[in-house]
């Protein structure tokens, strides 16, 4: 059992994450597992907390949403339109607070 599982800072962080991503339960679980090991370090080094490093790590750099049109078979009056998306993360950015 991790000593930081019931940490108020971790709980506040997770509540904000769940509010921003309400239907992503696997994402919530993965972030909690990583955050439990990162939070102690962040709490010891104030510059990371001030720079909101955890919040920045869990926000995608870019989200692209696009339309996918399924053309109907010949002589069919119906076509379908679906929405596709992908999120891009990991674009390095240096924060002035971390330099």
From TrEMBL:
One of its GO terms (cellular component) is cytosol. InterPro entries: Aminoacid_DH-like_N_sf, Glu_Leu_Phe_Val_DH. Gene3D superfamilies: Glutamate Dehydrogenase, chain A, domain 3, Leucine Dehydrogenase, chain A, domain 1. Keywords: Oxidoreductase. Its EC number is 1.4.1.4. One of its GO terms (molecular function) is glutamate dehydrogenase (NADP+) activity. One of its GO terms (biological process) is glutamate biosynthetic process. This is NADP-specific glutamate dehydrogenase. It comes from Mucisphaera calidilacus. The lineage of its organism: Bacteria, Pseudomonadati, Planctomycetota, Phycisphaerae, Phycisphaerales. The gene is gdhA_1.
């Amino acid at each position: 059992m991790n000593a930081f599982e019931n940490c108020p800072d971790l709980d506040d962080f997770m509540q904000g994450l769940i509010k921003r991503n309400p239907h992503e339960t696997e994402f919530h679980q993965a972030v909690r597992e990583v955050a439990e090991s990162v939070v102690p370090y962040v709490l010891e080094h104030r510059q990371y907390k001030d720079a909101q490093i955890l919040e920045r790590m869990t926000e995608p750099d870019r989200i692209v949403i696009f339309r996918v049109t399924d053309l109907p078979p010949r002589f069919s009056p119906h076509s379908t339109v679906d929405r596709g998306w992908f999120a891009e993360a990991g674009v390095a950015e240096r924060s002035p607070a971390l330099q």
